[in-house]
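Hello K.,

You asked for the raw outputs rather than the summary table, so here they are, unedited. I folded two proteins back to back in the same session to keep the settings identical. This is the first:
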Amino acid sequence: MASRILVIDDNAGIVEIIRRALEMAGHEVKTSLHGRDTLELFDSFDPQLIITDIILPDTDSIDTIVECRKRKPQTKIIAISGNGHLLSVAEKHGVDHILPKPFGPGQINALVASALN
C-alpha cells in the first residue's frame, strides 16, 4: 500500500537512496535536506511516516519529533543516525523505530513496511 513519506537528512546521497527505494516500493516521497522546513512540509504534505536523521545542522531534530507528535500523534517516525546514543534519546522522545547508519535500501523498505502495518 502506497503511503506519503517525508524524508529529512542533510546528506543528499542518503536522501536519494531512501527516496529511490521508497518510490520503487510505490510510496509518494517528499524530501528535505534541511530540518528547518520540516514542520511546514509536515503540515502541507501530511505524511503517514517521517524518516529523519537525528543530527541536522540547522535544527534540533528531537524538538521537531516532539512537535510532529503533538500535531499528529498517529504519524509514524523512524529516526536514523550513525550515533547509537542519539538513537536511544530519540526512542525516549517518541519515535516508533530507529535505524542505525549505514543501512541499505532493503533494510529501509522492510522497516517502513513494519512501521506502516
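The second followed immediately with the same parameters:
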Amino acid sequence: MLRHAAVLIALLTAAPLAQAGNISADKGGVSTAGKAQSPAALRSAELDSLFGQLQSAEASKSKTIEEKIWANWSRSDSVTAELLLGQASRALAAQEYDAALAMLDELLKAAPDFAEAWNRRATLYFQMRRYDQSLADIDKVLELEPRHFGALAGRGMIYMALKKPNEALAAYREALTMNPHMEGVIEAVKRLEKDRPDI
C-alpha cells in the first residue's frame, strides 16, 4: 500500500459512508420552479451548480459543498439501488469484502449506469489489492461522471501502489482540477512534484 493511503482512503470514503442510509434530498440551491424535470435531470443540474460553487469556494466552505456532491452521487432513481449502495458501503467499512462485493455486483447488474456503485466497487477492489479491476471500474465511473474527483484520486492511489509515480501525479492533478480542496491529494502532489520537478 502506498504511503498515506489510509489518509486518502478516509478522504475518498468518509463522505459517501456518512451518506449511506441517509440520502439527502437537499438540492443545493437548484431551482425546481417552472417545468417539471426528471429526478436525473434535477441531479445533473444540482451537480453543475455544486461544481461551480466548489471551484470558487473558500477552503472553509468547500467541505460542505463536497459532501453535497457525494450525496448527489449516492442518489438514484431507484430507492432499492440507494439502499443496496448504503448496505455495500457499510460492509466495505467493516471490511466484509465478500459481502460488499456480492452486493455491488448485484447492484451493477441492475443499475449499470449508477456511477457511484462503480466507484464503490473500485474502492473495494483497491482495498483488496485487485488493482487492474479497480482501474477498470474507475474507467467506467469516469465514462459516466467525468468530474468524479474521488475516482480520479483513487486512480492516483493505485498508480502509487503500482510504483508508477508519473501516472499517479497526472491522476492527482486531474482530480484537483475538479476539486481543488482535497488536502490529502494536494499533499500527495507536493511530495511527487518535489521528487519530479521537471514534470
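Residues 6 and 90 are 17 Å apart (CA to CA).

Happy to rerun anything if the numbers look odd on your end.

Regards,
P.
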